[in-house]
Amino acid sequence: MNPIVVLGSGLAGYTLVRELRKLNGDIPITLVTRDSGDYYSKPTLSNAFAQKKEAANLVLTSARAMAEQQKFTLLSNTEVRAIRRDDKQLDTTSGAIEYENLVLAIGADPIRIPLQGDAEVFSVNDLSDYARFRDKLNGAKSVAIMGGGLIGCEFANDLALAGYKVSVIDPGPYPIASLLPEQAGRRLMEPLKDLGVTWHFGKAAERADATGQGYTLTLTDQSTVSADIVLSAVGLRPRTQLAKDAGLSVSRGISVDERLQSSDKSIFALGDCAEINGRTMPYVLPIMHAARALAKVLSGEVAKVTFPYMPVVVKTPAHPIAVLPVGRDAAGSWKVLEEGQGIKMGFFNPEGGMTGFALTGEYAKERSEMTARCTA
Amino acid sequence: MKVWQCVVCGFIYNEAEGLPSEGIAPGTAWVDIPADWACPDCGVAKSDFEMVEI
After folding, report:
1. Computed from CA positions of residues B19, B25, B26, B28, in that sequence, does the dihedral angle turn out positive or negative?
2. How far, in Å, CA of A157 to CA of A320, rounded?
3. R_g of chain B computed on alpha carbons
């Protein structure tokens, strides 16, 4: 029997392999990855600098050890050129590979906003990006971060804690505006300012010009920010080209149903590249739930993924945050429940049921209780 | 006292500090945490944690 072929060695790919092995010791698995395949936890990339971690310290298990433990065939440093669906075959830089079922766990690319001028703009989306960024930080004193969302704020906290002068530039009105109500988002500003972060909301960076060892950034209101390094953290775009070229149904991500099955019944998608019933969910908890369901489906069980309430934890130790976000068009309103060294807010639907929450500072630790209080 | 890290999300469990908000008292050794305990951040099972040196 041909193997289940998993493309991608990130959290989605490796979690699926682990879950598959829990259910089935013998099923052949081949893992194809364009990087080394060393296992690391991606959420730690925006938290590792203040801990003085080198990229190599973030590797939890080498690719070789993973392959031995989980009994799969590893094809590392291998690019997939095309999926030949009629032959159930992959065309790769390591030759042709036949599959019984194929799982696309190929992740997402950082979105880059055009910046005029000559700056080298970094983004940190994987371990090798982290290594390059960390190298560049040696000897630098200041960092400008484009994007004040979840990842931008986590990096701001981490770099400020490590002693860098950090400027955060975002066209939105306050931190993490896509997930948090304004009163909660603003709570993050003072604690990070105390660490040395300067906020620039309501503007975008237009151009960057080399000056001395760093850059002068000109913002849309013509004010300037100087920084040795420019880091971009404005969001992710699912990687869909391979699927599109193969004629699979693709929308924002690779379209799959609640069985994680694409428009081809032998091809599945999982993680940041996937759009599950119209939703992309680039967070850890949804990946875990989806991987468990897909492991069952691939083992021949009747299964489909269901998502419980999944709070998102923002790793900003200066002012921790946990949020159960609500959809943009959700009916209801935010209410302040408590205020102290932080804020506790709930989102209530017209019937009075709580369907979301935002907890900051001292309240962040109440996320389990608050999740339990939420109603469908 | 040892420190453990979730291999999925990087959550850190420090035995000395425990996890009072989850009902785990300071000083609770890893072996004494119930097997059905899961990471509060990402939900992975106790068996998927690893020990790290910090």
Report:
1. negative
2. 10
3. 10
Tell which of B4, B6, B9 to mutate to test the A interface (max A CBs under 10 Å): B9
**Does the CB of B8 have a partner CB in chain A at under 8 Å?**
yes
% of chain A exceeding 70 in pLDDT: 100
Task: Classify residue A53: in a domain, yes or no.
Answer: no
pLDDT of A329 over the 90 cut: no
The domain boundary, picked from A211, A232, A253, lies at A232
A119 vs A230: which has the higher pLDDT: A230
Task: Kindly state the tokens that stand for A38.
Answer: 């060393």
CA A195 to chain centre: 25
pTM of the model: 0.91
- Note whether residue A314 is domain-resident: no
Range of the domain at A211: 112-232
Count of domains observed in chain A: 3
Cβ–Cβ contact A330 with B under 8 A:
no
Q: Do A288 and B8 touch (CB under 8 A)?
A: yes
Confidence at residue A334, expressed as pLDDT on a 0 to 100 scale: 97
Find the CATH number of the domain harbouring A121.
Answer: 3.50.50.60
Q: Are A167 and A230 in contact (CB under 8 A)?
A: no
* Interface membership of A112 toward B (CB under 8 Å): no
Distance set, CA A129 to CA A46, A279, A287 (Å): 11, 27, 22
Angle between helices A63-70 and A11-23 (to 10 degrees): 20
Domain shared by A181 and A147, yes or no: yes
Q: The complex's ipTM?
A: 0.72
Q: Are residues A241 and A92 in the same domain?
A: yes
State the Cα–Cα distance between residues B48 and A165, nearest whole angstrom. 37
Query: What percent of chain B is modeled with pLDDT above 70?
Result: 93
A79 domain-assigned: yes
